[in-house]
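Quick illustration, no need to memorize.
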Amino acid sequence: MEGKYELLASVLKALQTEGVLDGLVIVGSWCQYYYRILFDNAPEIPLLRTLDVDFLVPNPARFKSGVDVSEILNLLGFDSDFDYSTGLVKYVHPDLEIQFLTPALGRAKETPYEIKKLNINAEGLTYMKMLQDYTFAMTHNKITIRLPEPEAYILHKILISPKRKDAAKKEKDLMAAKSIGELCLEHEARRKRLKTIYAGLPRKWQRDIPGILEPLSSDLFSFLTATNSLI
């Protein structure tokens, strides 16, 4: 684990030095590494066991100047892996694999989004805007990163779980959402934030989440639906 983090830290430091890290958001399972620290090393948050690192590029992307992120990753030992069927480029190292994602807005787009200022492309996915809209900055080992707010992260995991084709990954995501969500319920400010973010979601999403949540966590289900008139 420490070897993976040291490699990721090298990537983050390089992106921070070039002034682009503050325009990216770490999403996916690596968030749990940082949430565990955020919640005072809470053992309830599952330990990370993934090679995949996902960076969210906001849509629209806003970077003041151009930086060749592809070259930065290549210099750190990552190979550019071009998928000829999709056009998507991932960055692969024996210890980590980095991919860039972005919210798919408007009409569906089958090809990746070109992020010309960074010389990368990003896979457009639905449901990602909620992670873009609710972020916070966290400094760890002198590196300042942006992450989704834990409350938005767990709602996102719950919402997309039915679309997961891999049953094991679906179960892992739901267990992480349960653990982090129930930790949020222990803090008054986070309880309020969870309710606020939930209330700001599209009505259909508000209706979808409780049906997934009820068998997973009675505490979260009761909290989110107790005073919500949309359900």
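The mean pLDDT is 92.
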